[in-house]
Design brief:
Blueprint (H helix, E strand, L loop, with lengths): L6 H37 L3 H9 L13 H9 L2 H8 L6 H13 L3 H10 L4 H27 L40 H36 L2 H5 L4 H7 L6 H10 L1 H14 L4 H13 L3 H10 L4 H20 L14
Helix pairs in contact: 1-6, 1-8, 1-12, 2-3, 3-4, 3-5, 5-7, 6-7, 7-13, 8-12, 11-12, 13-15, 14-15
């Protein structure tokens, strides 16, 4: 145990954090960059618009207009900022924005987060199906309850498939692949050039965004482990640990993921597991919790600014995650998975 704050030890701890941050960031980037490039490519093909048109009738299940398919599909392949950008082109009500937010926060950035989850042992298929089912059930509940809380939605609630087949997005880069001769009519830069630029600068942005968070985060984790901050903090959260059924060692990655997102929670989980191997039970329950609710501070602010309900996006989502994880922890199969996850 370290009783004081020795300068030399602090320097070594920070150095270890930088090294581990670079290693962890490298592992995550090997997954993130290829997935990002694939998603960018798909944006320049008819695949995503076709999926949007296909989902228009399904929006009625969530008491949403057909236009809501646009931000929801955008969210499957992008992050929350992509969802807000997609919503900005439509006149959604507070109830509708809140319902869309609740759906996409359960089921978003699927290719990337599934690939990251696979790196730490989560089954991409199982957790994707879990997130899809959770998104559907949450969307139905949110659509009903926001309708009760905020009243009638008015004319905007009428489902409209025509909006998804017009120039709202159909005559931009989405409807024609780069090799389609129709591009010649635009008189704009080559679509290959546009796509290559987005891939290049977007990839650099991904690298920078991850590095500026993951390296400081790993330094903080090194100090927390070296000076036993977690051990001192855990007793205050014993009630949460008991409710959701995880061990003391699982609390740090769970809290990091809850506050900052799945990517950083996964990075923390990888590091913690090297120090103190976690059980299969912990890994499974962390996955169930974080895929239901993560990055809660940023997403709450983002969708509140966009016009959604803070109560739903923050508190209802957190409550859902706690209840689902607590229920899963009490299933017979989770009571027997105590061996090390990578044993």
């Amino acid at each position: 145990m370290v009783d004081g704050f020795a300068p030399n030890r602090a320097v070594l701890t920070a150095k270890d954090g930088i090294i581990r941050g670079l290693k962890t960031g490298g592992i995550l980037l090997r997954v993130m960059i290829p997935i990002y490039l694939i998603v960018v490519f798909l944006k320049y093909t008819p695949a995503i618009p076709a999926m949007q048109r296909f989902l228009v009738p399904a929006m009625r299940v969530f008491s949403l207009p057909g236009d809501a398919a646009v931000p929801i599909v955008a969210g499957v392949f992008s992050d929350e900022y992509g969802v807000v950008a997609a919503m900005s082109g439509f006149d959604f009500t507070t109830a509708q924005i809140t319902t869309i937010a609740m759906i996409v926060l359960c089921f978003h950035t699927i290719p990337l987060e599934a690939a990251i989850g696979r790196q730490i042992g989560f089954s991409p298929v199982k957790y994707t199906l879990y997130r899809l089912a959770l998104a559907v059930l949450t969307g139905i509940f949110a659509g009903w309850l926001t309708g009760v809380m905020y009243g009638a939605r008015g004319d905007a609630a009428v489902a409209s498939a025509t909006a998804l087949t017009t120039d709202s997005f159909g005559t931009d880069i989405f409807m024609h692949a780069p090799w389609d001769p129709a591009w010649a009519s635009y008189g704009a830069p080559s679509p290959w050039h546009i796509m290559a630029d987005e891939m290049l600068w977007g990839s650099l942005s991904v690298v920078f965004s991850l590095a500026r968070v993951i390296i400081p985060l790993m330094i903080v984790i090194e100090f927390m482990l070296a000076y036993r901050v977690v051990e001192r903090f855990v007793p205050k959260l014993v009630w949460l640990r008991r409710v959701i059924g995880v061990s003391d060692d699982a609390l740090l990655p769970l809290l990091i993921g809850l506050l900052m997102g799945v990517t950083y929670g996964a990075g923390t989980l990888m590091e913690i597991n090297k120090r103190t191997p976690l059980s299969r039970r912990d890994f499974a329950l962390i996955g169930i919790f974080l895929y239901a609710c993560h990055g809660i501070i940023e997403t709450t602010i983002l969708f509140a600014v966009a016009g959604g309900s803070i109560f739903f996006v923050c508190f209802v989502r957190l409550l859902i995650a706690v209840l689902i994880t607590a229920a899963a922890a009490r299933l017979p199969r989770f009571k027997t998975q105590e061996e090390n996850y990578f044993s």
